[in-house]
Amino acid sequence: MFKSLKNFFHIKVIMNFYSLRNYFTNNGAVWLKLTGSDLETMVSKVVEHKNLNLRGKNVLDLGCGTGTMLKYLVDNYNSNAYGVDLIRLNIRQARKHVPSGNFYRGDIRDYLDEMENKFDMVILYGVIGCFKVNEQKIIIKNILKSLNPGGVLWIGANLYDDFDYKFQTYPVPSDFYDEYKSLNELNFDEITEEELFGKHKYEPKQTSVMITYQP
Fold this sequence. Notes:
The protein is 40% helix and 22% strand.
């Protein structure tokens, strides 16, 4: 009950407040401590780390906020941008920032259920912890089915339930990713975000998980 209330407050109140703040400040990040520049650096580091060629490729940001990461990929790689977010104001801003993008306002689970496109990168930064652990498995399964060969799912701001710092409602157990590590068609990569991005503004131990589909 407490977790459900916490999640509701986080999504319906806190995130809407940040979105309203960003509308007036033109900050591209729907986070308390991060800026638009931080998000650009982060997505660029992931592309570099995985040596991705996203030129002209499809990229999807689930929980895209105001479209900052997608704008970076469109501007630098001419990628085809797709974004999903619950908050109307975020989608409105994202459409301004990325006029060529395809945006959907709603639950990422509904989007994934109806999705027909294939993607070369799917971004899931700081979002998946809003869903119960069993729902996270379903979300990841549906995303992996949407990847082109060589495509990458990036799960950012990953937290485990034995960490002291738990800003996410549903951090995952330590063995959560074991099944993905064991599958031959998947390449599993995990690195602390402090190591990947440099000095971090949140929990130093939080990780980025990158799962590549290699059939």
